[in-house]
Amino acid sequence: MKKQSMTNTTVQSGQGKHMVDHQEPISVLVVDDHSLIREGIAAVVDNYEDISVVGEASNGLEAIRLYRTTQPDVTLMDVQMPEFNGICAISAIMSEFPQACIAVLTTYRGDVRALKAIKAGARGYLLKSMLRRELIDTIRALAAGKRRFPPEIAEELAAHIDQEGLTGRELEVLQCVARGLSNKETAVALAIGEETVKGHLRNIMDKLGANNRTHAVTISIQRGIIDLA
Question: Are 125 and 157 in contact (CB under 8 A)?
Fold first, then answer.
């Protein structure tokens, strides 16, 4: 497909028509451990003359190395990757390049990993399920020095911000439950009473909006609150 022109051209994006005013293509670094995601982003970007993918990385360490060599205008960063995750990569890049414009790529709304990435310096948030609709607008917004958090995502993040509010003891209880320990076994492991464990579990389920302990574990793993690796 022929790329859409950069010169005085109106292009169609997920949020409507936008005038392209960049004289040079916006350079983009794509970081994701799934090749299909990287290829999909490159395929969408290839339709626009004002945007160009200058590098692809499959983990955080590759991302840091490529960032140094390509100095992209915008980086799209997955948060859950092997070897060196996106949060660590964002922190490393931001410490060396404070002007970096990075958007989080994530599968889940309200992902605690994504919240941590934003605190590390990410300026945008992209759900992988919304890439076709939001990708181009997000890239252009970040390249223009703006932040990009779609309203529905901002609301979802706000709704889940308390998930980071689990206490240290609640996290310990949750980890025990995730390992398959019963309430009694958790109480022994943590040297607390069984009723105390039950109280912590009630608080955990309330904070996570979970129906039961298994649901709480599922939510916490999906959103990066605990990691079983």
Answer: yes
- Residue located via tokens 């912590």: 200
Pairing of strands 51-57, 74-78: unpaired
Contact 51, 76 (CB under 8 A): no
Q: Kindly give, in sequence order, each residue whose CB lies less than 8 Å from that of residue 198, ignoring residues fewer than 6 positions away.
A: 183
Pairing of strands 124-127, 74-78: unpaired
Angle at 211 between CA 209 and CA 215, to 5 degrees: 90
Rounded-to-integer distance, Cα 50 and Cα 55, Å: 16
Partners of 125 in beta bridges:
104
Residues 59-109: tens digit of each pLDDT: 999 999 999 999 999 999 998 888 788 999 999 999 999 999 999 998 876
Is the whole model's pTM more than 0.85, yes or no? no
